[in-house]
Design goal:
Layout lengths: L5 E6 L6 H13 L2 E7 L10 H12 L5 E6 L3 H8 L3 E5 L3 H17 L4 E5 L10 H9 L6
Parallel strand pairs: 1-2, 2-3, 4-5
The protein binds 4'-phosphopantetheine (PNS).
4'-phosphopantetheine binds next to strand 1 and helix 4.
Length: 145
Amino acid sequence: MKNKNVIIYPGSFDPFTKGHYDLVKRGLDIFDHIFIAVLENPRKNCLFSVDERIELIKSYTEDDERVVVESFKGLLVDYLKRKDVNLVMRGMRMLSDFEYEFQMSLTNRKLYNDFEAIYLVPSPDCLFVSSSVVKEIAKNKGDIS
Ligand code: PNS
């Protein structure tokens, strides 16, 4: 039997945003524990190193013992199997997220039959927030507060 009280929240988190944090808080209303799994992929052109991304996430979550932040390499489904968890959560902001998420879910299900995903809708204040938008504004010295 899979661990039912735990959910994995995977992503690039380059960087972690208030939108991601909003989702973590929502996840904690449903699950006892969340593993935030930061993808370590040298081929993906991330602005921040894995250590920097983890450090930033921990600055939001370190006081909460229900949250564990760690990195993973390779396939998400292999990481899930190692954790003995079959469930991930992801954010669904706009219709434009749907195709990407749907394809990813179907691929993961093909690779791991037990794979399940739930999609949480963030607060309206965070609907437009994305890591790319935050990076773009920061690079141009805009206000990202
Ligand atoms: O924040 P992102 O970049 O949208 O997160 C995407 C992520 C990390 C969840 C996805 O790219 C992933 O799981 N990568 C690991 C490699 C993998 O398992 N690929 C096959 C399924 S698409």
